Amino acid sequence: MFQNVKSIRISDQIATQIRHLLLEGKLKPGERLPTESELAEKFGASRASVREALSALESEGLVERRKNGGTILRRFSLNRVLSDVEFPRKLDRELFFDLVEAREMLEIQIVELASKRADRMELNRIERALEVMQEDISMNRNGIESDILFHQCLAAATKNQILTGLSRSIGHMMQKTRARTLEVPGRLEECLQEHRAIYEALASHDAELARRLIKAHLAQVRLIMDELDLEKGEP
Fold first, then answer.
1. 57, 131, 134, 220: most buried by Cβ count inside 10 Å?
2. Distances from the Cα of 207 to the Cαs of 19, 64, 218, in angstroms?
3. Per-domain residue ranges for the chain?
C-alpha cells in the first residue's frame, strides 16, 4: 500500500500518498497510522521526513496526533478545503460576469439534483428558510441571510459536498450583489414568491419545473443587476 519515495521533498510525497489513500478509501477515518518508525521503514524515509509530513497533514485537519495515542486519521472534508479558498476582494468586469455565469450553471444543476434527492428533512429545512424570509419581510429586515440560507439549503439537498461547497463559495463572492438587488423596493417579496415556487417543484420532485423556475429566478436577478449597472461596481 505504501511506496518508497526518493526526492528532495520526501515529506511532501509522504503526505500526498496518505491523502490519496484516504480519498481512495484504502485508509479509513478513525484508523490509527503506524508509528513514525514503522512509517519511515515503509516509505523508505527518515523519521524526520515522516514527522514533517504528519505535521502538514495535522495542519490540514486530516490527522490527529494524540499524546501517547499515536496518529488517528480524520475524515477528508472537501467542504473544508473549499471553505479555505481565498477569493479576491474586488472583481474586474470580466471576472464578475464569469462569476454570474458560473452561479447560473451551478444553481440549475443544484435544483435538478435536489428535486431527485431531497428527503423530508431537507425539504423541511428549505421550507424553514422560506419562513425566515417571510419573517424578514414582516420585520422589515433586508433578507440577505434568509436568501443565503435558502440557496444553501438547496445545495445541501443535493447530498453532494462539492456542489454545496461551491455554492457557499460563490455565494460569499456575490454577497454585496445580493444585498444591492434585495434593496430594490418589492424585490424581497418577489424573491420569496420565486423561492416558494422552486420549493414546491422540489417537493413534487419535478426536476424540469424546478429547472425552469430557477432559470427564471436567476434571469430576474440578472435583469435587476443590469438595471443597477452592478457590473461596473463591486459584487
1. 57
2. 36, 42, 16
3. 10-76, 81-232
This prediction has a pTM of 0.64
**pLDDT higher than threshold 90 for residue 230:** no
- Helix, strand or coil, per DSSP, at residue 65: strand
Segment among 75-89, 93-107, 142-156, 174-188 with least mean pLDDT = 75-89
C-alpha of 85 from chain center: 10
Exposed, middle or buried: residue 87 (CB in 10 Å: 0-12, 13-18, 19+)? exposed
SS3 of residue 46 by DSSP: coil
CATH tag, 10-76: 1.10.10.10
Instruction: For the beta carbon of residue 233, count every other beta carbon within 10 angstroms.
Output: 15
DSSP 8-class letter at 62: S
Give the C-alpha separation, 131 to 136, whole Å.
Answer: 9
